[in-house]
């Protein structure tokens, strides 16, 4: 065995001092963790929204049990959650404008603020220093210190320089400490660049299309794509070359076809990309659209059970899972990404609102709102592995999102 000798010698007094510091530090660390049942990481934890009660449940995916409940989080009827850089703290965005920082190890609220009248989601900056919130009322983005939730920046989403404001949707984090978001009312995409401090540089892209309703950013942080509700098509912004402006893709994909009534707005997330293909819900249609991500051209349309809401790729990209809007929201279908065929179907219960894979894909968890339960499955055998009661569950958010762009 090779032995490596270091030329520098550490004085024995300095070495003893270092040992003493480590002992004291260990004692302090144990004292600080006295209220935690055991010292542990967070990589196997998830948060699950209980929308009816204004609570968040902490799910341990290793034991397949809820291990804690955090109360007092306000109106969670359309809540979303992102994580701090270290994965310990969850930032909960409530429909009442509440922003709450939750310690998922201690199962308690750290700090909470009512920062607006109606918010729709948020994101944490690349360096973990900032947390941004997208607001409907007043329309705009507010940016806070992630440690204290002190307000650092207020970005009103003004329309054409007037005092009128637009609802903000599709807020994501992007490389370079940037936030990207869309304006529903004015059909714009904005970039807020915080790379030089707390005074953002704002770039605006107008006339992207009618009523952008949600957006995704690719996992490499390059492409921001906004879905359009007011017309067929999507708007794509290349963040490597923002000077080139916004490009329309999937233009008029439903030309000549009558759109069905939309009962629940579909969602876009970066997890809908599997390999070199993107799978996105078709607005008002019983279809999933397939896009070649090298040229952003449509290459397929997959008929499905109902109007898709979430389209999610398994971590190994072999399959995508799809859930549906009312009245078909008792069903989940599984699509083979190679041959674009439906290869599986589940009936977990009534009101399947959300799905989330464990980080390595050995589990998938489904919230079944109307049956007041959260169900876990083995995604390979499609056999249930757990069924946990929870009142009106909705969003499920794995803590590994802390290390992923746009989630």
From TrEMBL:
<dbReference type="InterPro" id="IPR011048">
    <property type="entry name" value="Haem_d1_sf"/>
</dbReference>
<dbReference type="InterPro" id="IPR003143">
    <property type="entry name" value="Cyt_cd1_C_sf"/>
</dbReference>
<protein>
    <submittedName>
        <fullName>Protein nirF</fullName>
    </submittedName>
</protein>
<dbReference type="Pfam" id="PF02239">
    <property type="entry name" value="Cytochrom_D1"/>
</dbReference>
<dbReference type="InterPro" id="IPR051200">
    <property type="entry name" value="Host-pathogen_enzymatic-act"/>
</dbReference>
